[in-house]
Amino acid sequence: MAVPNCRIRLGSYAPHLSQLCAGFTMLQQRGVLSLEYAGLANFVSEGTHRHNFMLEAEFDDGTVVAYDVEDGYAGVQQPELFDAQLSRVVRYFRRSYDHRQHNGMRNRMKVRPLGLNFHVTCPGNFFDTELPQSSIARYVNEFVSHNSYPVYKGLFVTQLLNPDDMPGIQGDLMDEIHMQNQLRMDILRACRDEFGERFFGGVEPGDYARECAPDLVLSADQCTKEAHLRRLRENYVCVAPQGLHGSNSWLMAECCAAGRAMIIQPLRYEPQGNFARAQNYVMFTNAEECTRRMRELLRSASTVHRMEAANAAYYHAHVRPDSLVLQTLRESMPGRFPVVQV
Fold first, then answer.
1. Strands 54-59 and 64-68: what pairing?
2. What are the phi and psi torsion angles at 96 (to 5°)?
């Protein structure tokens, strides 16, 4: 049977889209589909989508599958227009998925959750050819390092969100940024005080970070890509707070890829598959609760081991780029993509 032909269009070269592009590339390399990259499209100007943080995959039978990696729902402010735009696609997968946002829409069943998102690539990924060398994403296999250690430490390396880098923001979003920054600083100080040498954490360097929290700023060499990957291979339990607009952070996907246990804020958006509390993560809502959850996990290596195994399994089923894309294609076109070992 001939493999399906797939034509890819991107709305932007945002790194959020690298994982999807890697997934399609990996499936082509395994002979699951044939791929044509048609370059950039301005979906907003075309009137096909409300923003350009998008990838569209069109197949030889005319089927269109859309992927939306926007943080939150800022780009879907006109439900009637969004509903009409859904008519031309068979499925619309959202990185930030909340079924309540689609109540009353005629095409609401077409909108489905996408998996956890992170900046990742693979050899031969067409996406990389459009990025400057300094922006090339990490390779898939650099993350995979599942291990079970006898003793664990806490880990939280983060950024402070600088409102000056986001011109025009105001109101609720400005409040969210200040609250998120304060939470991150409170967690770092509480964990440093409680765990001492059993905790590594701080904020990435920058003028804004030095102004807000000089006591928490790490050195530049502690925040390199290489240092980040090295720590994810070591005996750490990770804190992964929400991203902007309450989005699921990239660190959650990276923790799954590295088989790490994680402590997260309550999920505002639903990912693919069975990603569950106490199985894949424990939860916190404030710095005190985060510290308590960390204390509990550091005292129970067996609990951490179970969570590591669950997250490594979830990565291979739902986060690894080829698995994530194949799940969406099977849901969109049942029977066209048989079960294959990826």
1. antiparallel
2. -100, 100
Q: pLDDT tens digits, residue range 263-290?
A: 999 999 999 999 999 999 999 999 999 9
- Tokens representing 185 are 């600083």
Task: Report yes or no: 250 and 240 within 8 Å, Cβ to Cβ.
Answer: no
Q: How far apart are CA 291 and CA 100, in angstroms?
A: 32
Neighbouring residues of 23: CB distance < 8 A, sequence distance ≥ 6: 320, 321, 322, 323, 324, 325, 326
User: Whose structure tokens read 């902007």?
Assistant: 244
Give CA–CA dist 263/281, Å, rounded: 6
Distance, CA of 314 to CA of 65 (rounded, Å):
23
Answering whether pTM is above 0.90, one says: yes
**pLDDT tens digit sequence for 130-155:** 888 777 788 998 888 888 999 999 99
- CA distance linking residue 311 with residue 323, whole number of Å: 14
Q: Which residues pair with 37 in a beta bridge?
A: 8
